[in-house]
Amino acid sequence: MKKIIKQLLPFIKKFKTHVILNVFFNLLYALFSALAFVSLIPMLKVLFDKTATVTEAPVWNGILDIKDYGEQLLNYKVSGYLENGDSQMALVIVIAIVISTFLLKNLFGYFAMQHIMYLRNGILTALRKDMYQKIIKLPLGFYSKRQKGDVMARILGDINEMQNSFFIVLELIVREPATIIFSLIFMFSISWQLSIFVLCFIPLAGFLISRIGKSLKSNSLKAQQESGKLISIVEESLTGLKIVKSYNAEPIFTNNFTKSADRILRLSNKIGLKNNLAGPVSEVLGIITIAVLLWYGGKLVLIDNVIEGTTFIAFMGLAYAILTPAKAISKASYKVKNGMAAADRVFEILHEEDTMPDLNNATNITDFTNEISIENISFKYDDDLVLKNFSVKVPKGKTVALVGQSGSGKSTIANLVTRFYDVNEGHIKVDGKDIKNITKKSLRNLMGLVTQDSILFNDSIKNNILIGKPDASEEDVINALKIANAWEFVKDLPNGIETNVGDAGNNFSGGQKQRLSIARAVLKNPPIMILDEATSALDTESEKLVQEALEKMMMNRTSIVIAHRLSTIQNANLIVVMQKGEIVEQGTHLELLAKDGMYKKLVEMQSFE
Q1: Percentage of the chain modeled with pLDDT above 70
Q2: pLDDT of residue 608
Q3: Does the pLDDT value for residue 609 go beyond 50?
């Protein structure tokens, strides 16, 4: 608990004004909660004709004497009306005092809730923003072994769980303890014997409640982890819906979802059963306390004559004022267990270290003048090396193509040059500078990436293309579409470049999506282009249009082309043939054909496709 509050402190400090005002109004709320019951005493005394007669106005003797002065002044005013036979006016005065204290109590409670609302919502929004920034910032390697659904569950479900449970503590941390303290002060001023009697039951109640709630946190953590799996199943089902349907695999995915949902149900029921015990347990303990208090208090009133009956009734009200916040604290302690599990999962992401940070002395590069040099690099995602002692140079203005069978390490080169991952051995240099010594932002500013999966976002064509250059004009966007051979279909759309592409660009064909991706890269206008099998998923007609667009874009530009279809890279300045992470051949198209090696075999295999 202390650990989580410590982690939350930087967020709470941003809203310290609301914290101060909340504490201030909660203290006033607690004070008037206790005074509300104390104010019943003079009213009861008037009703039962027990008001002490005071004939002389009291004298003010300083702040320390405020209790006696207030009591004497009220008795002086009330007894004056009673002496004159105006008992109705006396009753109006004491009733007005009761109404005023209850009114002020609720008014201060309202102000306190307003400020806790601003505090809670502000902290949760700040948490969400920081978490999203962290998710975007973390390297791709972080997600290679994680389910996307689990990360989504943390930023959505877990933060909501914190709002619904853990942040209740912020509401109770001042108000309820202060209410108990003020009530106890007034109770001890009335009868120390009765007060001690009440206090004996509070530790017992706390012990019983803590025993019941002990296992809540572990069950809550399991439930939240399972929620992440459930979201992953839904996300994967929707992403691969065509495959699911074409293989009639609906029962498999339905079964996986049902099992996960049933596991959540069992865990939720366990949590709910223990949560539901909080109310009845605290209620029963409260009734027992009140019953014993009535027995012992009745004895003090009727037999020992220690306190008056009217005062005892007010004391019972104060005892109730203690039990109500005590019950609220006990119920909150259950919910806090859920919130702590959620908070642990949120802060786990927030405290995740970036394994590829920019170095303190990293430099910014603004242009590309010479070459990209890949020198004896080796790399592995897990245990086995994907690249072994790989070296190649890409001079400015030249096109280097990487070819080979699937799993030969071609796409890994693209991941390493863009620094999505860091090499295990060797160096990748841009104009002689190791990319580890260059800021990631300035490095990627020099590069445009077009992948096999044409990734579009659920927004307009215009906004998708502007991602690489947000300040570009509409005319620039249209020119980029023309270079990418995309304007021919975009201009015929009812809303033109304002047309929404749909979820993942599904309103368009594969060829159209790929040309929009190329337009995005064209608008960015980087000096280095990386094409990762940009045409491999297209039909022949679409491939031709996309290939023309690529050739226009690559003109006078440095390019690294990862190709599956060899027909697309015949004009490359250098073709590197890869196998199992190593170079087996390199040269121009004609040179490699003349060698009669692996490249020629690949060309012959594709000519029959």
Answers
A1: 79
A2: 42
A3: no
CB 428 within 8 A of CB 434: yes
Q: Start-end ranges of CATH 1.20.1560.10 in the chain? A: 2-350
More confident residue, 65 or 369: 369
Half-sphere exposure of 479 (CA within 13 A, CB side): 10
**Helix %, strand %, coil % for the chain, to 5?**
65, 10, 25
Task: Name the phi and psi angles at 303, rounded to 5.
Answer: -100, -50
18 closest CA partner among 161, 123, 105, 149: 123
Alpha carbon distance, N-terminus to C-terminus of the chain: 64
Q: What is the mean pLDDT of residues 362-368?
A: 90
The rounded distance, in Å, linking the Cα atoms of 55 and 45 is 17
Closest residue by Cα to residue 108 from 21, 200, 39, 47: 21
**The CATH number, out of the four listed (1.20.1730.10, 3.90.1330.10, 1.10.8.60, 3.40.50.300), of the domain defined by the range 366-446+563-609:** 3.40.50.300
Considering the chain, tell me which residue range(s) the CATH 3.40.50.300 domain(s) occupy. 366-446+563-609
CATH for 2-350 is 1.20.1560.10
Evaluated on CA atoms 93, 94, 100, 103, the torsion sign reads: negative
Helix ranges (H only) for 408-484 are 410-417, 440-445, 461-465, 474-483
Q: How far apart are CA 109 and CA 30, in angstroms?
A: 9
Cα 323 from Cα 464, distance rounded (Å): 59
pLDDT tens-digit profile of 179-193? Answer: 888 888 888 888 787
pLDDT at 338: 66
- Residue that has been written with the tokens 């399991």 in this structure: 222
Secondary structure class of 144 (helix, strand, coil)? coil
Residues 43-73 pLDDT 10s: 666 655 666 565 666 667 666 666 665 666 6
Place of tokens 């409670």: 109
Torsion of CA 400, 404, 409, 412, to 10 degrees: 40
